[in-house]
Design goal:
333 residues, Sulfite Oxidase, Chain A, domain 2, Immunoglobulin-like, 5 helices, elongated, mainly beta, 17 strands, five-stranded antiparallel β-sheet
Length: 333
Amino acid sequence: MLGENLDGRLYTDLSKLSLDAPQPTVVPTERFYIRTRVSTLLKSGDLDFINVFARAATTPLRVSSEVLRKQARPMGMHLLECAGNTRETRFGLISVAEWAGVPLVDVLDRLGTARADGRILVSGFDRYESPSATSQPGASWIFSHEQIRGCGAFLATEMNGSALPRDHGAPARLVMPGWYGCTCIKWVDEIRVVGDDAEPTSQMREFAVRTHQQGSPKLARDYQAAEIDLAAMPVRIEKWRIAGKIKYRVIGIVWGGREPARRLEIRFNPEEDYVPVDNFQQGTNASWSFWSHAWTAAAPGSYLIRLRVAEPTVRTRRLDAGFYVREVEVLEI
């Protein structure tokens, strides 16, 4: 764990993902990435209730965190990735957990706001004793009703079979399956119905570029859904000696998108052609799937490993830009 409060970070070491683990897809909670740690200003009992405001209401309806915990049910495995996941941190701001919670639409239905005119603003406790040099406080995002229903948004109260830890947003955090982590608000303290003319929140503006917006729209309704495109990258390269010869095996993950990809291709230098990945099948878009590829390096040296999805209809903006290119130095062949 590095830093505190808004500057707190924990990076998942993807190279240690094991296909032999009982649940290879799930990252243990203590290794699940953290982009912001809990504020030292947040005290026990501060979030016993979530305040829900109907359109233009000044008096909130209150949702008990204890009731949410009691009503929680399994929501399945879902991947979170920070929109600021970068090569400098070895792409360690990405993880998968098994979640439990309550669908957000159920909460809105019970309070009579699920089909109200306007949009839904979800906010979380995000105040700190001192300013951050790299991030802005004020975690909140505005969604349409269709976006909430379409992705199956839920308020998570558990991860990996235990109560949600404080650094992961306890007592309740929003999970937007298939969306970047900046939309998955932690320490939820308020839900509010806002007008269709609502301006974007500071968090929406901060992450506009990272969520592939066209500039920084002036109204929240003009923001594109912050969905994660289908992507893939290597996470480990193994060196094997077989019958006296050195062989390499590339292990990687594929994730994101709305539909599983049918074909993944790989190359090891710009002057080479792409070839199909040997062992690939994306079983789900909710979490990640593993792939592997046997490789014989032509000579010692540096190699740039790049992947692509050979389906023109599948959106892969970060892959197309070379965002997840990895480099490996081969010393022995």
